[in-house]
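Anyone have tokens for Putative membrane protein? Sequence:
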Amino acid sequence: MSDPTQHPPLPATAAPASVRNLRLAQGVLLLFHTTGFLGMAFSKDPSFYLQFVPLNLLLTAGLLFAFQRDRSPAFWGFCLVVSLVGFFVEVVGVSTGKIFGQYEYGATLGLKWQQTPLIIGLNWLMLTYMTGVLALRLPLPAFLRAVVAALLLVGMDVCLEPVAVRYDFWTWQYDVIPLQNFKGWFLVALILQVYFNRVEFDKRNELVPFVYMLQLLFFFGLSMLL
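Reply: yep, here.
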């Protein structure tokens, strides 16, 4: 039986309009991330740029999912489930310290409920979706692809953590990032990736590699400057 999560490779060429739209989206995202990077890294008042972090996340998500070819009920159901799971995992994590360790969110990520930013579920969705799509390129069994995707997600967190602490995304007890955090991220990511592989929708998105690498370089670059 064929794996329903696998799809034929993209055509070697795309319609000119599609290419233009892709280049436009990449240009907009590059502009926003470059501006944010320079402002956060070199401005005397990075708080001005930090107030746009939720907006940048929403813009990135909007452009990313605009290039999702199959926006069927199955796709939207996947988005809803992953967003809710990601959000409530964080709610439990913040209130108990049992999943990621003892931490609390700052003001940078915006409005909160139960001491957890509302937008954090969207962040889990984007990372799960992007790493899942990237892993689909590998000729591996579904579970091994889920493991690779979870590792890609944890790799993003490794780059993100120093930046998050420095710019009040969240803070850790005793200012120490515990190993438990990365174990928790991997476990949650693996569960979500297994779910990603089981949901049937067209999982091709030309913008995914660019967004993942842009965010990885963004956080890695900032962490190198701290």
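The CA atoms of residues 160 and 219 lie 5 Å apart.
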